[in-house]
Write a structure and sequence with these properties.
This protein has 279 residues and is of the alpha/beta class. Helices cover 40% and strands 23% of the residues. The protein has helices at residues 13-30, 55-80, 99-107, 127-137, 166-174, 176-179, 204-211, 229-239, 254-260, 263-270; strands spanning 5-10, 33-42, 86-95, 112-116, 142-145, 157-161, 184-190, 217-222, 244-248, 274-278. It has a 10-stranded mixed beta sheet, with helices on both faces. It is globular and about 65 Å long. The relative contact order is 0.14.
């Protein structure tokens, strides 16, 4: 399926321009329409107000968030007017605890969501629930683009993180419009299982599936020579000079990922290239 509806979320004026530029570039490259939602975020937590807080305090926070949303909307319209993309912009207010639901309600009618990295210096706490709202409740693949990277309109070299999971397979299917156009696709298998039906041909069935779609794929079997799977993946991405990574998101529960860390979070923290994820 081709990408015909691309969606992005803007919550921070400091990240707005690069996020909009990336989303517009992807939409233009796919000949898709870009929908933008600009949220003014009420970051206060219900139940945690200081003693004596009243309705005036609540109204003040909502008024501030509403003003931020209006300003972000104006910034987005001005920025997108300079691009070649077809676009539409909405603005609104969301509470931090509820922003994922609002994102999902709009993202679920899109083919692809383009977002900035949720982790790093200067990143707002709302970026993680925005990402999770699109991935989980919205059930939409998400393209995470680092701020300093120019998203390729047509990626030339793609690395697929393959572990035979349902999440990884959904990511591959979602990325098919990019995969069929790529010059080279590397299916990366790290420490394949010693037992099981695919032990003698790790990644073989996926390679066959891709070949039938006209994808030029090769299998790279790697050993976990570094402490984390994400470290091995990132090193291989640099070795093959890839400009996109395709992988499943959150193989474990989100709670366990948040507390203990995991491949998803590690990849998002250190990725240097555009990363397409699906759950």
């Amino acid at each position: 399926m081709a990408f015909k509806s691309v969606f992005t979320v803007v919550t921070d004026p400091a990240l707005a321009e690069t996020t909009l530029d990336h989303a517009a570039a992807v939409a233009t490259g796919c000949d898709a329409h870009l929908d933008v939602m600009c949220f003014g975020v009420d970051r206060t937590q219900t139940g945690y107000y200081y003693a004596g807080a009243n309705a005036m305090v609540l109204q003040e926070t909502l008024t501030r968030a509403s003003g931020e949303a209006t300003a972000l909307g104006a910034q987005a319209r001005e920025r997108l007017a300079k691009t070649e993309a077809r676009w539409g912009v909405e603005d609104g207010v969301a509470q931090l605890v509820d922003i994922g639901r609002h994102v999902a309600a709009r993202a679920r009618f899109s083919d692809l969501v383009v977002l900035p990295k949720p982790y790093g210096t200067g990143r707002g706490v709302e970026l993680e629930p925005v990402l999770e709202g699109a991935l989980f409740e919205g059930q939409v693949p998400v393209l995470v683009v680092p701020e300093e990277v120019e998203p390729p309109k047509s990626p030339e070299r793609i690395v697929i993180g393959w572990n035979e999971s349902s999440e990884a397979l959904r990511a591959v299917r979602a990325a098919m419009p990019f995969l069929v156009q790529a010059e080279a696709v590397h299916v990366v298998v790290i420490d394949p299982p010693q037992h099981g039906p695919n032990r003698s041909d790790p990644g073989g069935m996926l390679s066959q599936y891709l070949a039938r779609h006209g994808v030029k794929a090769e299998i790279d079997v790697l050993s976990k020579t570094l402490p984390r799977v994400a470290d091995v993946m990132q090193r291989h991405v640099r070795d093959v000079n890839a400009d996109m990574v395709v992988m499943g998101a959150y193989g474990h529960s989100r709670f366990r990922e948040a507390i203990l860390g995991g491949a998803t979070r590690n990849m998002l923290e250190q990725t240097e290239v555009t990363t397409l994820m699906a759950h």
